[in-house]
Structures are given as structure tokens and as C-alpha cells.
Design brief:
By secondary structure, the protein is of the alpha+beta class. It is built from 11 helices and 11 strands. Strand 7 and strand 8 form a beta hairpin. The chain binds iron/sulfur cluster.
Length: 307
């Protein structure tokens, strides 16, 4: 034991490894069993490393895009009342993989979602697979693609005359037509890891150079190049999001849903779950949602009494 203690290069080992080695000196059998269990988790995991304390949690990007270990927590919030109607914890690092399971989980409790109910989500839940399933299920979903999400974030309601949103795409997406009625042909397609396709369109240099809107449209580039995402389903969602109803519904998401998330974090001071394991994390998340709903109902009663 003394020999092992001397061999622990404290300054060179990271804290978790040092802790495990110290535990192994104190209780070798228990530590060995724990390490065997963690090794099994690691072998079954799609990730290169696991958390020794909670082997079920996963690496995922946080709001600031830094990789942290934890769970992905989703809440379905009623936009009119701010009440959380369903909550789910998953080990998918990407939000978009949880969109369909979350609403299927909701349907298990509340029955089939009516086709008149609007399901609104941010761009993190956008994927071609989700659009296909939403279409099959007949859900009235509103999820912006990356371009529109950026536009909505900037709170831009008025499009610039030569914004790419004013270019009309052909049904087969092989070309688009600019506001000066010139054709931009598709010259490249890139498929992202989410399965989303990005199409690149370019007008010819000659056409743009002789166009009266050249300076305004192309600015510093020599010709107009624009991008667009996806196939038919993506196009339909894009048009739906750009419709008056789409813009109106999506604009309600931020003021009605985000305060609920902010209150959950700041009022009770719950910035992270304390439970270990998916099941316990799910239970803790549900308890937090119940507490938040009680606060919301209390606020509602106060508002009603004061009017
Ligand atoms: S500059 Fe080119 S893309 Fe822009 S409006 Fe003129 S022709 Fe169309």
C-alpha cells in the first residue's frame, strides 16, 4: 500500500483517475467491480470516454457550444399557459433525434395530437427525418431551417429586396429565379450529418454584371451565390414558416416558452440535475417540472385575483 501511494504521481494524473487510484488502495475489490462495470458501459457506448460517476450520461454541447457531460432534457410547454405538459430525459446528444420520441411520449398520456394543434420547435429540432415523420403523422409542426432561424433571431420581419428569401425555387430545386427574373442554376449539393441537404445556386458573372441591381444585390462579390436547404418537405416547411400564420405562431414561442425555462433555472436555482442515471434524471426532471407548474399556477391565481 505504501508503495502504491508513492507511485501515484498526483500532479500528473487528472482528478478522477487520482480519486479512483486512491479508492483502489483503500478498497481494491469494490473499485475493481466498479471499473469492470464502467468498462462494460464504455464498450457498449458510442462515445470514446464515459463518466466514471454516472456512466449513463453523454458528451453533448451546452448553450455556449462547449462539450459537457450530462443528459438532454426536453419539455413540451403549452404556449398559452406556460404549463409544462410533458418532460423527457434522453442520452441523445442531438436535440433533433428526440423531437418525434418526445411527442410520441406525449401521445401515450394525452392521446393522439389533433391535426389542428400547432407544434412549434426551434431549429435544433429540424432534420429531414423529422420532417418526413411529421408529414406521415399529419402533425401541424413549425420548425425553421437554419436560414429562417437566423432571420427570426434577428427579428427581421421585412426582407431586403435581394435577400435569398425573395428568390423563387423551382419545384425540383434544380434552379431558382432572382427578383430580376434571371436563372441561378444549382452547382453543388452538400449533405450534413443531420441528413439535411444544402443546395448552392449561382448566377453567371456576365448576367449579374449587366444587371441594374448589381451593386445592391451582389455587394462585394462578383456574382450572386445563394444557398438553400432540403427537398420537397424542406421546401414546404420553409414556405409554411414564411407564411403569415407560420411567422405569427413562431413569434409566440420565444415570449411564451422561454420564460418558463428561464424561471426553472433561476427561481429555484436548478441549473443542472443532481440525480445519476437516466431513470433518476427523468424523475428529477419531472419533479422540477411539477414545481415550476405550481409556481405558474400560483402566479396565474394572483394575476386573476388582482384584476
Ligand atoms: S445581380 Fe444577378 S442575381 Fe441579382 S438581381 Fe441581378 S441578375 Fe439577379
Amino acid at each position: 500500500m505504501e508503495y502504491a501511494k508513492k507511485q501515484l504521481p498526483d500532479d500528473k494524473l487528472k482528478f478522477p483517475a487520482r480519486k479512483q487510484l486512491k479508492n483502489a488502495i483503500k478498497n481494491p475489490e469494490k473499485t475493481l467491480l466498479k471499473m469492470q462495470d464502467r468498462l462494460e458501459h464504455l464498450n457498449n457506448s458510442t462515445q470514446n470516454t464515459i463518466n466514471l460517476t454516472d456512466p449513463e450520461c453523454v458528451w453533448r454541447p451546452n448553450k455556449k457550444n462547449n462539450m459537457t457531460m450530462g443528459y438532454n432534457i426536453h419539455h413540451i410547454v403549452d404556449m398559452d399557459s406556460g404549463i409544462i405538459v410533458s418532460t423527457g430525459v434522453s442520452t441523445n446528444p442531438d436535440n433533433h433525434k428526440d423531437f418525434i420520441p418526445q411527442f410520441e411520449h406525449y401521445e401515450e398520456f394525452y392521446g393522439q395530437i389533433p391535426t389542428t394543434t400547432a407544434l412549434v420547435a426551434d431549429n435544433g429540432y429540424y432534420s429531414e427525418d423529422n420532417l418526413a415523420t411529421i408529414n406521415e403523422k399529419g402533425w401541424d409542426a413549425y420548425i425553421p431551417n437554419k436560414e429562417l432561424a437566423t432571420l427570426f433571431k434577428k427579428n427581421k420581419t421585412e426582407l431586403k429586396p435581394f435577400s435569398k428569401y425573395n428568390f423563387i425555387f423551382s419545384n425540383d430545386f434544380s434552379y431558382c429565379t432572382c427578383p430580376n427574373n434571371q436563372k441561378l442554376t444549382k452547382h453543388n449539393t452538400i449533405t450534413t450529418t443531420k441528413g439535411t441537404k444544402t443546395f448552392y445556386y449561382a448566377a453567371s458573372y456576365k448576367t449579374c454584371k449587366n444587371c441594374p441591381y448589381y451593386k445592391e444585390c451582389c455587394k462585394s462579390s462578383t456574382q450572386k451565390i445563394i444557398t438553400h436547404y432540403g427537398g420537397d418537405l424542406a421546401k414546404n416547411m420553409y414556405l409554411k414558416m414564411q407564411s403569415t400564420r407560420g411567422k405569427e405562431i413562431y413569434s409566440k414561442r420565444m415570449p411564451s416558452v422561454e420564460p418558463t425555462f428561464a424561471q426553472m433555472k433561476h427561481n429555484p436555482g436548478i441549473t443542472q440535475l443532481r440525480a445519476y442515471g437516466v431513470k433518476q434524471a427523468q424523475t428529477e426532471s419531472e419533479l422540477v417540472a411539477i414545481a415550476q407548474n405550481i409556481i405558474r399556477i400560483n402566479e396565474y391565481i394572483h394575476q386573476k385575483n388582482n384584476t
